[in-house]
Amino acid sequence: EKIIFATGNKNKVKEVKKILEGLDVEVYSKKELNIKEDVEETGSTFEENAILKAKAIAKYTDSIVIADDSGLEVDYLNKEPGIYSSRYLGEDTPYEVKNKEILRRLEGVSKEYRTARFVCAMAIIMPDGECLTAVETMEGYIGTEASGKNGFGYDPIFYPNGYEISSADMTMEEKNDISHRGKALRKIRDIIKEKLGD
Ligand code: ITT
């Protein structure tokens, strides 16, 4: 059974391919399918935006479609950048710059007030049009410096609770085990398994 993962983010594709490993599915990104459509993320929640992205692609195919909308909520910054995570300081601004800016805005703030979380909403559209979602978080805090070369985006400044390292210092397997994306996608995987009857 073919699954289409509707995203333009190759880091998400890597993580999702790994998380769905072992299930008899093929993951295709939009790029691999030559779908050029750029979806406007006009929703006001991660969940709404995930559904928008999945629906935009579902009209091109009879396969199962999944989409991920995710981001970082920093409590001290009133949950910024939130659903605007990829657009924060401009879509093309390097993450080094975005991460530095968040660290700067938290300068002098003690650890107990540096709490943050990654949120992931996964939407799945079945061939019969049924739409389901799973929303999960990874709780942690913003460190005082960026660290790590793995992962992507805000990973170098995010330190998951219970670990002394950033999520960019984790292997992809370690991160997937505890991450917002890992947790949401494993729920979706169980739904797929049920539907496919295996
Ligand atoms: P698609 O919409 O095409 O899937 P995108 O990168 O634009 O790709 P989002 O709109 O969902 O995706 O933006 C999510 C942003 O939140 C992403 O670009 C990262 O900056 C950040 N983010 C989400 N999950 C993350 C993770 O696991 N680690 C680090 N940053 C993450």
From TrEMBL:
It comes from the Bacteria. One of its GO terms (biological process) is nucleotide metabolic process. The keyword Hydrolase applies. The active site is at D69. NCBIfam families: PRK14822.1, RdgB/HAM1 family non-canonical purine NTP pyrophosphatase. The lineage of its organism: Bacteria, Bacillati, Bacillota, Clostridia, Lachnospirales. Homodimer. InterPro entries: dITP/XTP_pyrophosphatase, ITPase-like_fam, RdgB/HAM1. Binds 1 Mg(2+) ion per subunit. Pyrophosphatase that catalyzes the hydrolysis of nucleoside triphosphates to their monophosphate derivatives, with a high preference for the non-canonical purine nucleotides XTP (xanthosine triphosphate), dITP (deoxyinosine triphosphate) and ITP. Seems to function as a house-cleaning enzyme that removes non-canonical purine nucleotides from the nucleotide pool, thus preventing their incorporation into DNA/RNA and avoiding chromosomal lesions. GO terms for cellular component: cytosol. The keyword Hydrolase applies. Mg(2+) binds at E40, D69. Its EC number is 3.6.1.66. Belongs to the HAM1 NTPase family. It catalyses: XTP + H2O = XMP + diphosphate + H(+); dITP + H2O = dIMP + diphosphate + H(+); ITP + H2O = IMP + diphosphate + H(+). Transmembrane segments: none annotated. Keywords: Hydrolase, Magnesium, Metal-binding, Nucleotide metabolism, Nucleotide-binding. It holds the Pfam family Ham1p_like. This is dITP/XTP pyrophosphatase. GO terms for molecular function: dITP diphosphatase activity; ITP diphosphatase activity; metal ion binding; nucleotide binding; ribonucleoside triphosphate phosphatase activity; XTP diphosphatase activity. Its cofactor is Mg(2+). Substrate binds at T7, G8, N9, K10, N11, K12, S70, F152, G153, Y154, D155, K175, H180, R181.
